[in-house]
Amino acid sequence: MKALRRSSTSSSSSASSSPRAPSSPPPWVHLRSLLVASSSSSLATSGNSAAVAASASFSPASYSPHSDRGGTKSPWSRRKRKRPLSCRHWNHLFSANGKLRDGGRKFLKKVRSGGVEPDIRAKVWPFLLGVYDLNSSEAERNVIKTNKRNDYEKLRLLEAYALYDPEIGYCQGMSDLLSPIIVVMEEDHEAFWCFVGFMRKARHNFRLDEVGIRRQLKIVSQIIKRKDSHLYRHLQKLQAEDCFFVYRMVVVLFRRELTFEQTLCLWEVMWADQAAIRAGIGRSTWAKIRLHAPPTDDLLLYAIAASVLQRRKLIIERYSSMDEILRECNSMAGQLDVWKLLDDAHDLVVNLHDKI
Fold first, then answer.
1. DSSP of 69-117, one letter per residue?
2. Which of 7, 94, 241, 321 has the fewest CB atoms lying closer than 10 Å?
3. 27-72: per-residue pLDDT in tens?
4. Is there a contact between 190 and 183 (Cβ–Cβ < 8 Å)?
5. Residue 85's beta-bridge partner residues?
6. How many structural domains does the chain have?
7. Strand, helix or coil for residue 171
8. Are residues 230 and 179 in the same domain?
């Protein structure tokens, strides 16, 4: 507004200083005049509007004072619009398995000649805009629809979390943690707040300084050192005692090493431990119900150490570099028994919880 006022003032002052040559108004005045003129022309009499339309449509060279609305037409008006694609016609374009017949040629021809009726645009536009392939079946489109809905929900919830926790924001790997929650929780607001609760501890995995990651890798290293000194010495020889080869397991909490259902089982047990700690349920309570392993905030790290210890013989006898161990850890997907893993992790908790 200040800029507009300045241009208006300067133009008026220049007009008063040079009456013989009035200055042209600023560009925004021209724009406003055009808008007003176009609005006024729509309210004029039919005769005046015809003249305005004629002058706007033709160049001075082609203008004839005897022309009227029935005279020379625009080239675009020579082609009559056909009937738009109707709901009935749309349904007839599909075969029994939900594919557009003839690769969608008739469909596109119909739309090109007449457009689409308003009530089916929501169904038609995804084909026109490339969301669905013209050769896709109904089953294939259902899969695409589900995947895109999940992708959208993840993006929306991750954006909401980035606003909720601007210090961490969004980082690669968060979608791995969010996707199981979206599948289970139907309501968006419940999914969001469950994710916030999940990230209360997991957020340290996404700090730029990686302090949280380094702390967790150090704990995994200490567990292996105290449980299996032979394996630890082999890792030292390979300069892999920092356990960087389990980095991915730590960041996305085993999400890529376990199946979907196994991931949910592991996370639920972890969350139960964390909930017990928040509720102040201590060691004595668990001893009474014959659960010897006390709850721990670091159950994930004991499970990661257990997965490495399960492969101790292979690592010691076959692998001579950290890269080989890293490949082995990344190839665990689908090969782990989550309940055996948890049993081994709980054994480690019982023996080492007070020493780590």
1. TTSS--GGGGSPP-PPBPHHHHHHTB-TTSPBGGGGHHHHHHHHHH-B-
2. 321
3. 434 433 433 344 444 444 444 444 444 444 444 444 444 444 444 5
4. no
5. 116
6. 3
7. coil
8. no
